[in-house]
């Protein structure tokens, strides 16, 4: 019954920045920890970042640390991923993810209750 809709993807040059957004509906947003995953052609879907319900806790995959920032605005039912210093290896479809209503951080695909449709991020050399 939940819907997650990503936006903000696009084409950027290496070293540039991009912010992707995920608007959630048909769920009580503040009850869900949220996250971002990505999937590049020929690769497994991988965890990127997650944020707790109250935004007190965040987790990042090693490659994202120091470059990406996850945030959320519970009043707007939206989670964001700010991506700086982008590299060609960041090229992927980025998926928004909601953890279970129990509030666990969605850091593995198996822990995800709902997925967005994905937004393409392409980083050129």
Write up this protein.
The chain is globular, with a radius of gyration of 13 Å. The protein has strands at residues 3-7, 10-13, 18-25, 34-39, 46-51, 58-60, 68-73, 78-83, 92-99, 112-115, 119-124. The model has no long low-confidence stretch (mean pLDDT 96). The strands form two sheets. Strands 2, 4, 5, 6, 9, 10 and 11 form a seven-stranded mixed beta sheet that branches. With 125 residues, the protein is mainly beta. The chain has no helices and eleven strands.
Chain-averaged pLDDT:
96
- If you compute it from the alpha carbons, what radius of gyration comes out, rounded to the nearest whole angstrom? 13 Å
| Poorly predicted tracts of residues | none
Measured by DSSP, the beta-strand proportion falls in over 45%
Distance between the termini: 40 Å
So how many helices?
A: 0
Shape: globular
Please give a handful of descriptors for the protein shown:
single chain; 125 residues; seven-stranded mixed β-sheet; four-stranded antiparallel β-sheet; globular
Write the layout of secondary structure elements.
Blueprint: E1 3-7, E2 10-13, E3 18-25, E4 34-39, E5 46-51, E6 58-60, E7 68-73, E8 78-83, E9 92-99, E10 112-115, E11 119-124
Parallel strand pairs: 2-11
Antiparallel strand pairs: 1-3, 3-8, 4-5, 4-9, 5-6, 7-8, 9-10, 9-11
């Amino acid at each position: 019954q939940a819907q997650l809709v990503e936006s903000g993807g696009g084409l950027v040059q290496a070293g540039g920045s991009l912010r992707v957004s995920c608007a959630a509906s048909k769920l009580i947003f503040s009850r869900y920890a949220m996250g971002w995953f990505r999937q590049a052609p020929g690769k497994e879907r991988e965890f990127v970042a997650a944020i707790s319900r109250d935004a007190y806790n965040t987790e990042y995959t090693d490659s994202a640390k120091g470059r990406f920032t996850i945030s959320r605005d519970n009043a707007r039912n939206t989670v964001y991923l700010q991506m700086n210093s982008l590299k060609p290896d960041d090229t992927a479809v980025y998926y928004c993810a909601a953890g279970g209503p129990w509030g666990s951080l969605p850091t593995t695909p198996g822990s995800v209750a709902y997925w967005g449709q994905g937004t393409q991020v392409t980083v050129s050399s």
